[in-house]
Design a protein that fits this description.
Elements lengths: L1 E5 L4 E6 L1 H7 L7 E5 L5 H12 L3 E5 L1 H8 L7 E5 L4 E3 L3 H6 L6 E6 L4 H13 L4 E5 L8 H7 L8 E4 L2 H10 L3 E5 L5 E2 L9 E6 L7 H5 L3 E4 L11 H22 L1
Parallel strand pairs: 3-4, 6-9, 7-8, 7-12, 8-9, 10-12, 10-13, 11-13
Antiparallel strand pairs: 1-2, 2-5, 3-5
Helix pairs in contact: 5-6, 5-9
Length: 258
Amino acid sequence: MRAYCNNGDFTVYTIYGFHAVMAYLPSGLVNTIYLDQGRQDARAEGLMALAETHQVAINQVPLQQLEEMAGSCPHQGVVGACERLPVMKESALADLIADCNEPPLLLILDQVQDPHNLGACLRTAAASGCHAVIVPKDNAATLNATVMKVASGAVGKVPFVQVTNLVRVMKQLQDAGVWFYGTAESGAGDIYQQDFTGPMAWVMGGEEKGLRRLTQDNCDVLCHIPTSDTLSCLNVSVATGVCLFETRRQRLLQQEKN
C-alpha cells in the first residue's frame, strides 16, 4: 500500500493485485477499483461482479495509468483505492477491552519490522480470535501493500493499534487486569504449563533481538516454546501462531467444560 495522492483532507492509499483487492472488498476498505481496460478475461469479470455486490465503483483505465499509480509494485492490471487505513489510536484500547464479551486476548509485537512477518501475524491473530494487535509507532512495520497481501484479507478484521509508548500501555492494561506473557528462551516454564484462559496478552519480540529488556521486564510471565534439539529458534510469525493457537485450544476446552 502506498499513498498516490493527497487532496488536502485525506490521503488515498492503494493496494495491488487481484487477490489482495478481492480479499479486501468485503471489508469496506476499498472504495474505488481501477482495472486495466484491456482485461476482458474471466478473472476481471469475477472482480467486477464482486465489486458490484459490494457497491464499489470500477473505473476501466489505460494500463499506463495503473503503472503510474502502482509504481514498481506488481499490480496484475488492478489497483484498489482506500481513503483510510484501519489503524486505531491507543486511546481506543480501554473501550475495546471493556466491550469484550469474553476474556480479552491481545497480541503485542515489540518492534517487528518485516512487513511479511506483520502480515502473517495479523492473519494468525484474526484466525485465532485475537481482540487486537498492538505495535509501537517507531521502529516497527506498519500497514503497507506487502502486509495487506500476506494478511490475505485479515487487515480490518482484527483491530490494529499503534502506540507511542509500549511499556506505558502495558502498565495501563495490567491495571485493567490483563496478564502479559512474554516469549523468551530463558523463560522458566514452557507454554504448555501455563493457563491462558483469563484476560491476557502475548508479547512477541522483533526479528533481530527478540524482546527488548524493558518490555521483557514488564511481562508477568516469561515462557518458552519447547523445540527439538535440532533448532531452538522460531520465526516470530511462526512463534505467534504456536502461542495464539495454544491459547485458543485452552479456551475452547474451557468452553466445552462449561
